[in-house]
Amino acid sequence: AGVPCHPAGAQLSQLTSDPPWMPVFQYEKVKLTCQGSGTPGPTDWYLNNRHQWQSDLSYIHVTQNKPGIYQCRSPSARLSPPITVSFSNDQVMLQVPTRVLLEGDQLPLRCRV
């Protein structure tokens, strides 16, 4: 299914994750929240560039059986930038933030045991 066109001035939907670091341990759950124009209506959710479902909720919980690249589209807004949700069974892992970084931004790293 194609992505419907929106006016050029339509704002991007914003996708955030809690926790805001990836990868996460396999037993953890990731909450993705979609924010957009504030127009009421369902949120469209995409996984690996394919429309997966519509939901009346502006958030979803992702577990280890559904890793991948997530995007969302709230009503009257454009498709969000992607967030890659990944899980690790390592005992120690180096995490990076899920927010979009621009060239010149500092890249914080986090080590978790």
TrEMBL record:
Please state every residue range assigned to the domain named Ig-like.
Answer: 7-88
Single GO MF annotation: transmembrane signaling receptor activity
Which keywords fit this entry according to its UniProt record? Disulfide bond, Signal
GO cellular component assignments: external side of plasma membrane
The record, for InterPro entries, names:
Ig-like_dom (IPR007110), Ig-like_dom_sf (IPR036179), Ig-like_fold (IPR013783), Ig_Fc_receptor (IPR050488)
Instruction: Kindly state a single biological-process term from the GO annotations of this entry.
Output: cell surface receptor signaling pathway
One Pfam family it belongs to = Ig_2
> Signal peptide: which range, if any?
none
What is this protein called in UniProt? FCGR3 protein
Source species of the chain = Chionis minor
Q: Which gene encodes it?
A: Fcgr3
